[in-house]
Amino acid sequence: MFQTCRLWNLSIASVLALTLSNVFLTVRLLHSGDCNQYSSADEGVSMVPRAPVLTPATCLEYVLAESLANSTDKAVFSGLDLRLGRWDTRRLYKIFDFAVVGERYPELSGTYSVCLGTQSSLEKIYSLVQVSHHWSGPISAAIFAAGNDELYLVQIYLSYLRACFRPIRERVSFHLVLPRERAPTHLKSVHVSDYTRFDCAKPEATLNELLKQRKPDTSKWRIKNPYPQNHLRNVARKGCQGSYVFLTDVDIVPSVSFAEQLDKFLRKQKPHHLTAFVVPTYELDERVRFPRNKTDLIRLANKGLARPFHHKVFIYNQFATNFSRWQADVSESDETRVSHNVTNFEFLYEPFYVAPDTVPPHDERFLGYGYTRNTQVYEMFVAGYQFQVLTPLFTVHWGLQNKKSRPAWRERQNNVNRKYFEVFKREVHVDSL
């Protein structure tokens, strides 16, 4: 019969050996489990809307110890010389390409044929947590910051994300875009304690707390001045190294295992530079969990808990994708394939799509909201691109949108861009002759 072992009956050497053994075992288990991952429930699918279920805040203690070997003990942009960078064509924005490089970004860029290009302002960067957990390939992210105070908050938050979430630290390369009018004059010192004091399990709450520190004049400037979406899209795309680019906004979340399935599909395709693969995008009620697969998404759509993106705000935004046909195309196989061609292209169509890195750039005359993405898609259509809808891949935007939730300043920006569009349309048609 085994005897009960009492600690005080062990020798000092035994105690030390046992302690070291436990330490190494604990570290090994933590490393293999990765506190950055989803909980084991639902096979890696998030049980909450906006972020993965994470382990308690003690996880940060382990991450910080690990970060000593991963260079996350220094804040992002450390040593960045703000006198350098490059200007856009009209010298409105200064750009710093690869201000932060993901630790595995070069390796992943060589492994995957497709790169996810995305862009964000400070308010929405938290979406990268879920995006990076669903997308296993390289991610090129362009980030906008206005003024010294906002750049300081971006430094803290990106440093926090990299310390807490391995997928972000490894997969995401960040590019910085600064407006000339409010170009920061210097980088404020950021200490490790400035971003390690936050709870890794609460990325959205952490960002909201930081946003309270933004100066009122910066917030007013941001409302008054249009957000340079197309500049950021072009910067993100330039940072991608693969043959294909999947260009999205930061709050567009790919379905689970998206990159692996898409990469398999693309490697089977014969090279054709005039094809764009459309990925259906749905709005999702914030009370439900992220759909496991297409079948789960259709079930939510039938209950009114999911619907095509911008369906109530502006139906023509995604209408040509033909969601009814996509939902009717059900297969037991999870292999990515073309469901159908877009045959009813309508002006103002702006799908999220995967295409070779040869498509026209986004026109940077369009600032703010309105005519930013659909003009680029229209130029592709005039040039002869064929849009093909993929299945069963999809993307999700959290929240069922309506027109009442749109601020007045968005409509003002839309009216300004409408005038630019008349010039743009004439140019496109002349070039196509």
From TrEMBL:
Name of this protein: Beta-1,4-glucuronyltransferase 1
Gene Ontology cellular-component terms listed: Golgi membrane
Gene Ontology biological process: protein O-linked glycosylation via mannose
Names of the cofactor(s): Mn(2+)
Main location: Golgi
InterPro entries listed in its UniProt record: B4GAT1
Example of a GO MF term: metal ion binding
Coiled-coil spans in chain: none
Superkingdom, natural source: Eukaryota
Organism of origin: Anopheles farauti
Pathway annotation: Protein modification; protein glycosylation
Membrane disposition: Single-pass type II membrane protein
Subcellular localization, as worded in the UniProt entry: Golgi apparatus membrane
UniProtKB keywords: Glycoprotein, Glycosyltransferase, Golgi apparatus, Manganese, Membrane, Metal-binding, Signal-anchor, Transferase, Transmembrane, Transmembrane helix
Similarity comment text for this entry: Belongs to the glycosyltransferase 49 family.
